């Protein structure tokens, strides 16, 4: 496992442990920080000529320090998409700062996130009669915007559009749900 992957995993694990330890911390304004976990599904749009867009699926966890600001870590993978008579798949690992704006007198909110993400794309295809395996991996700035709906105080659903800027630019359109605890 490469150093960056180990670092991202360590940061995510540390964040989750920190979230659990701070779950009952009051910030003096009547708001107690709130951890959450969720799952999402959607579609990648990869900057790879001739490749179908793979279906994306992922998990994420975060912590809201107050009603507006928080942190989030996520992993999103894909199924195998058709590519030159073979397969192509993608993965992203990301860590973000988040901002939520609650629309007045509604259960709707807007969400923005900005951070870093590692994007990995692997292809296995045929050129003539030769089978080729190729992969690329890079880390870059990532961000996204979305809309959410609070089903109840402990559950929300979100639609999100995210972009990862790296050697292989990836865009991601997802819908997901998360539980707060």
Task: Tell me about this structure.
Residues 1-23 form the signal peptide. The protein is mainly beta and 181 residues long. The longest helix has 20 residues, at 3-22. Strand 8 (155-164) and strand 9 (170-180) form a beta hairpin. Residues 16-28 have low confidence and may be disordered. It has an eight-stranded antiparallel β-barrel with strand order 1-2-3-5-6-7-8-9. It is built from one helix and nine strands, in the order αβββββββββ. It has one domain: Beta Barrel (Porin), CATH 2.40.160.
Helix and strand layout, with pairings?
Layout: H1 3-22, E1 34-46, E2 55-64, E3 69-78, E4 81-83, E5 86-102, E6 108-127, E7 130-152, E8 155-164, E9 170-180
Antiparallel strand pairs: 1-2, 1-9, 2-3, 3-5, 4-5, 5-6, 6-7, 7-8, 8-9
What brief labels describe this structure?
Porin; 181 residues; 11% helix; mainly beta; 1 helix
């Amino acid at each position: 496992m490469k150093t960056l992957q180990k670092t991202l995993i360590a940061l995510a694990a540390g964040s989750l442990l920190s979230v659990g330890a701070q779950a009952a911390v009051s910030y003096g304004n009547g708001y107690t920080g709130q951890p959450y976990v969720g799952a999402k599904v959607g579609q990648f749009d990869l900057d790879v000529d001739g490749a179908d867009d793979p279906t994306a699926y992922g998990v994420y966890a975060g912590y809201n320090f107050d009603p507006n600001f928080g942190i989030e870590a996520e992993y999103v993978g894909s199924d195998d998409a058709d590519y030159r008579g073979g397969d192509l798949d993608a993965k992203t690992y990301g860590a973000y700062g988040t901002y939520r704006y609650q629309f007045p007198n509604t259960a709707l909110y807007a969400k923005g996130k900005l951070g870093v993400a590692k994007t990995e794309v692997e292809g296995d295809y045929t050129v003539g009669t030769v089978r080729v395996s190729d992969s690329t991996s890079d880390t870059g700035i990532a961000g996204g915007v979305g809309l959410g709906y609070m089903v109840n105080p402990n559950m929300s659903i979100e639609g999100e559009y995210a972009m990862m800027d790296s050697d292989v630019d990836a865009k991601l359109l997802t819908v997901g749900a998360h539980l707060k605890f």
